[in-house]
Each structure stands twice: as structure tokens, then as C-alpha cells.
Write a structure and sequence with these properties.
Blueprint: H1 16-28, H2 34-43, H3 47-56, H4 59-67, H5 71-75, H6 78-82, H7 89-100, H8 104-114, H9 124-134, H10 136-143, H11 149-163, H12 166-181, H13 189-201, H14 211-215, H15 219-225, H16 232-241
């Protein structure tokens, strides 16, 4: 499959100093997801281009690119998802999103802030990056990692195996490292990120999946099919973190 990448796109640059500045802002407020996009921009270089080229060489990847489905509209149709049987991926997803007060459109809106004043590109790379963004919360559901600070860092470590990018790994380890400094050693916070990265390497990539079909599948059967293992180290860490007042995020203040 031939891919189209706009030749007007600027050459990707790696700027570690800028990435660190945005990392400090993210550590101060994990809900400031705009900083995630800035960190990725300043650390990932040409990673997305490389991954896109690998993606379209696979049968499933080429099929997903040809479909060009608008996932936010599908994922935000909660009424349709609630009609799916209990125990399906779709029902688990809508329960997760409503419990957390999230929407796929909300994540799109956050990413649009990052583009403010920037040129937009309607090429295959944009389609690929949007798919990566739009499946993020679904990955939380499949892996079992929550939206707390350790859960977010662990899910990024998990996804690094498939999506690559130094930015993913940087956020994962820096976020977990900050948490580890403020919590008991017996919580073994860093073990969650290490296990997540290992589990990611042993699983099938979500990016390749037919999301519409996947939403109808039984959740546990999907986890087994994709070889997504139970996040044991994460659950162990949470059991200890809650004892020190951890409610999703701890600050140095």
C-alpha cells in the first residue's frame, strides 16, 4: 500500500529541553493532556512515519487505513454501546468513559489545542496519528490500567511496544519515578511500568484491530485473544498506595 505524507510537513526535531519543560507541567497536573502532545512532538522525531510504514505493510494495517473510520463518533455513541450484551468490550468501555466523565470527542478537542495556529495536514500520517489518539482510552479498558497517575504511565509503557516513540517511554518512567519518590518503597511503583512494557511486547497491537467488531466481543475473550495479561504489579502497587492516601495523583506539595 502506497502512503501519502504531505511534503509540506516540517522536518521532525528532537528537543529534550522543551520536552522536559512540558513534562514538569504534566507532572504538576496529570489532567493537562495537552502537555502529552507537546512532549511527543519534541521527543518522537520521525517515529510515527516509521511506524506508519510498518503498519501499512501488514494486512490488518492496510485494511484499517483503507477504511478511514471516524472512531470518535463510534466510540461516543453510548446509546448504541449500551445495547451490547454485558461483559462485552463496548459495555466495559462505555461504563469506563461515563464513570470517568470522558468522551472521545473531548480527547480530540484537547489535541486540537495543540494544533492552534499550526498548519493542518490531511494525509495518511494524520489518519494514523488520529487512530493512535482515539484508541487510547479503549486501551485502558483492555489492559485494566486506570486513569490514575500510575495507570496512565503504565498504559503508555504498554503501548510503547506497538506505537514506539521516546515520548511515550519518557512520560511513563518520569511519571512513575515522581510517584515512587513520594510513596513507600514496598509499593514497588516502578515494577508496574516495567511489567506493562513487557506485557505490551507480548500482546497483539490494538491499532491493527477492527474496532467496531472488537467492541462487540466479550472482554475477557478479547484479552485472551490479544494476549493482554492481568496487570499484577499495578494492582499490587495500588493496594499499598491507597494506604498512604493515594487517590490517583500525589503532589510534592
Amino acid at each position: 500500500m502506497t502512503i501519502n505524507i504531505d511534503t509540506n510537513r516540517p522536518k521532525a526535531k528532537i528537543r529534550p529541553v522543551k520536552a522536559m519543560q512540558h513534562m514538569k507541567l504534566l507532572l504538576a497536573d496529570k489532567e493537562d493532556t495537552l502537555q502529552v502532545f507537546h512532549i511527543m512532538e519534541n521527543l518522537n522525531g520521525n517515529n510515527s512515519v516509521r511506524k506508519l510504514k510498518q503498519f501499512v505493510k501488514t494486512e490488518k494495517g492496510a485494511a484499517r487505513m483503507s477504511e478511514r473510520r471516524e472512531l470518535p463518533a463510534i466510540l461516543d455513541d453510548h446509546e448504541a454501546l449500551k445495547k451490547l450484551p454485558e461483559g462485552t468490550v463496548g459495555r466495559a468501555y462505555v461504563n469506563f468513559m461515563e464513570r470517568e466523565g470522558l468522551s472521545a470527542a473531548g480527547l480530540v478537542e484537547e489535541s486540537e489545542k495543540w494544533y492552534d495556529g499550526e498548519d493542518r495536514y490531511e494525509d495518511d500520517l494524520a489518519v494514523y496519528e488520529c487512530r493512535m489518539r482515539d484508541t487510547h482510552d479503549l486501551l485502558h479498558v483492555l489492559t485494566g490500567y486506570g486513569r490514575d497517575q500510575l495507570g496512565e504511565t503504565s498504559v503508555l509503557a504498554f503501548s510503547h511496544a506497538h506505537n514506539g516513540g521516546l515520548g511515550n517511554l519518557f512520560i511513563a518512567y518520569m511519571g512513575a519515578r515522581q510517584l515512587a519518590k513520594m510513596t513507600p518503597r514496598n509499593a514497588k511503583v516502578m515494577a508496574s511500568v516495567k511489567e506493562a512494557r513487557k506485557n505490551g511486547r507480548e500482546s497483539l497491537p490494538l491499532m491493527h484491530e477492527d474496532i467496531v467488531a472488537l467492541l462487540r466481543e466479550p472482554l475477557e475473550a478479547t484479552r485472551k485473544r490479544m494476549n493482554i495479561r492481568e496487570p499484577l504489579a499495578y494492582k499490587y502497587a495500588l493496594s499499598h498506595l491507597h494506604n498512604v492516601g493515594y487517590d490517583g495523583q500525589l503532589s510534592a506539595a
